[in-house]
Design brief:
By secondary structure, the chain is an alpha/beta fold. It is built from eleven helices and twelve strands. The strands form three sheets. A seven-stranded mixed sheet has the order 2-8-7-6-5-3-4, sandwiched between helices. Strands 9-10-12 form a three-stranded antiparallel sheet. A two-stranded parallel ribbon has the order 1-11. Strand 5 (about 155-160), helix 6 and strand 6 (about 195-200) form a beta-alpha-beta unit.
Amino acid sequence: MFSFIPKRNTQRVFLDYAATTPMSRRTLRAMRPYLSDMFANPSSLHKEGVAAREAIEQARKKVGAVLTVKARDVYFTGGGTESVNLAMLGTVRAARNNPSFVGTPHVLISSIEHAAVHATAAALEKEGVAVSVVPVFETGVIDIDALVRELRPETVFAAVMYVNNEVGTVQPLRDIAQAIHSYKKEQGRDVNAYPYFYTDASQAPNYLSVQIEKLGVDLMTLDGSKIYGPKGVGILYVKPHVAIETIAHGGKQESGLRAGTENVPGIVGFAEALQEAHELRDKESIRMTELSEYFFTSLKAHIPSIIRNGTHKMQLPNIVNVCIPGLHAEFAVLQLDARGVACTSTTACKSNDETGESYVVRALGREDCAASSLRFSLGRNTTKKDIEIAVSRIAETLTNSSQKAS
């Protein structure tokens, strides 16, 4: 009989890095002066304020260099969720206030977007905006033909996340961008006209390139908490041609797009974390690929019925989302936690609905796995020894759980 009382001195294994990451030592070192001595308001005109302003602008340049864009097109926000809201609400607000925009604003989102995108789309719908949800294939890759069919002259933007945070599927952003450009050409529209292409790329920088021109997007969100940076800070990249308005009124910070005294240490930390992720990306991608394959293969050897959700060909190397038919995923998460393994059944930013199911797994057409899937996400601190310890505990716990469920 399984006990919820963990053994004393049990080594814990954290496998929930997709939810958040610890701040790196390098990032903390970069932030430390701005947490104490260099505390001035960057809007102040005195020497200390000017120094704080300079720190922000240097951070903006550093982010721009990684994204290969002009620094002036990078806007700092209070995190990924604020960035999502600014991108979606801000572009729709600008369209509504544009005399040349005709008709009811319309937006597209994929069925597996982050909860922040779904929630913001729902808020827009309440305001009278038309919202279309584009399906994905069982692999988790969006149906581009379906997306194109949903485009209208009134479409303000299409939102497709770069990497899904639950199953790790990487979307072919360049192909999507080309399809949207082709639609504009058929409509006789300029390439910079509506609809815009927006992506939440929060999960991407540790393992994938976030160079804007290679992706073909008009707006992009990043979040410090996913890249071993500080929580409560993110960015929104906005191409110069994009019409966007503020959603929060106050001061004229961030070129008037995001009011509020800037989080100087957070901004400095974000830029340092992004730079570090850029430098470590290739090495960590190789290491994570090897570890995750070892992890899943080892689990499969212990639990033959286990199924991996999503595609292997276009998948982030550190996310392993698995289904065990008949498993009660939420209960299994608690059991594993008691055994010293931290994982999750769905994204931490959206609690399971009343059915206890993952809307992402359900969107893949895996109704049988929607309530029986677990997400394990590896990170920089994960070692092969961690994996071996975790597999042993997971195999014992999940085998017991599946037997009870059956």
